[in-house]
Amino acid sequence: MPDPIGPLLFVNHFPNWQLELEHERELQAVVAARAIEEIVAERPSHVVLVGDLDAEPDAASVRFFTGKQSLGGTSVCYRNAWDRAHPGEPGHTFTARNPLVTETNWDWPFQRIDHILVRCGEHGGPTLAIAACELAFDEPIDGVWASDHFALVADLALPRPVVKVP
Questions:
Q1: Whole-structure pTM value
Q2: 89 burial type by CB count under 10 A (0-12 exposed, 13-18 middle, 19+ buried)
Q3: Residue 48: its pLDDT value, please?
Q4: CA separation (Å) from 107 to 36, 62, 92, 101, 124?
Q5: Closest by CA position to 128, among listed 51, 64, 48, 42
Q6: 8-157: which CATH topology?
Q7: 3-state secondary structure at position 87
């Protein structure tokens, strides 16, 4: 059994899904981030934010969470588990490879819209090490698909201590 990691705040963020509502997703991301920061200020803890963010990594709302841009006078920084474990790989979670997506007849341009994000500490790295991140439910079982989205599963652990050489 692994060692305990300490307090953990697990957040499921689920903003507006409509393609044209990125501005609303931006506003919702700021509200969520500020609420998380208030909680962590009172009770320090690791934070894992997950969800169907209905936005790809280059969208403003996701760029905000990953520290690549500020929104509404607010900045935060989380590491994307998929990007950390699979740099440069697409990691599609909503794709026509899944027949439940094509049955909806959507011409959906976004394909990696589900995310696992780990909050960074004061020195820039995530407070939990991202050991792995994989797709799950990305194949049918006995011909049945679990969802129109593929799931993400991440293995998180305490980071190894930095050893300073004198």
A1: 0.92
A2: exposed
A3: 98
A4: 34, 21, 15, 9, 37
A5: 48
A6: Deoxyribonuclease I; Chain A (3.60.10)
A7: coil
